[in-house]
From TrEMBL:
Binds calmodulin. Interacts with NDUFAF3. It comes from Haliaeetus albicilla (White-tailed sea-eagle). This is NADH dehydrogenase [ubiquinone] 1 alpha subcomplex assembly factor 4. Residues 16-27 have a biased composition (Basic and acidic residues). Transmembrane segments: none annotated. It comes from the Eukaryota. Pfam families: UPF0240. Residues 16-43 are annotated as: Disordered. InterPro entries: NDUFAF4. GO terms for cellular component: mitochondrion. Belongs to the NDUFAF4 family.
């Protein structure tokens, strides 16, 4: 439906708009800069002949050139060979939430899952004396500075239910 309407507006008065565009005066192009190189080629025809002339000496030298290409031998790495040093992250088991199989099982140290983040924020909100920043940092293997930032800038939502009488007053 929308395509038909758009096509109708696009094709409305098309011929007169096309005639108007065609009848407009065309802008004159900017004058071209005469380059000294082109003038030089037209003045001296010997340059053109020299460009297209074959040089037998160069052709014989070119025929003597032979390029042979070989791929380097492929080396198969076995399991006992050299190993690149790789950084293995220490992982810790998560404090499983209520989602079970959907939860992340292992998290690198210094990071937390979303379920853990919500849990620790809620615990800190309900019991700030028990769940201090230091205890949270130790419990979840986090840095104290990051835990302080987390507790300062992230606040979990609170659900408030208003009594029916208060709803009418609002």
């Amino acid at each position: 439906m929308g395509g038909r309407l758009a096509r109708a507006f696009r094709n409305f008065n098309l011929e007169s708009r096309a005639r108007r565009e065609i009848s407009k005066e065309k802008p004159t192009p900017a004058p071209r800069h005469s380059t000294s190189r082109l003038d030089e080629l037209t003045e001296r025809p010997g340059i053109q002949e020299e460009i297209y002339r074959k040089d037998d000496k160069l052709l014989t030298l070119l025929k003597d050139v032979y390029v042979e290409s070989r791929d380097p031998p492929v080396r198969v790495k076995d399991g006992g060979g050299e190993h690149l040093p790789c950084k293995q992250e220490e992982k810790r088991l998560t404090k499983l939430g209520h989602l079970g199989d959907l939860d992340v099982k292992k998290v690198p140290k210094g990071k937390i899952s979303i379920v853990e983040a919500l849990t620790l924020l809620n615990n800190h909100k309900l019991h700030p004396q028990i769940w201090t920043a230091e205890k949270i940092a130790v419990e979840y293997s986090l840095e104290l500075k990051e835990v302080n930032s987390l507790l300062e800038f992230f606040i979990p939502f609170t659900v408030q239910e208003f009594p029916k009488e208060a709803k009418k007053a609002i």
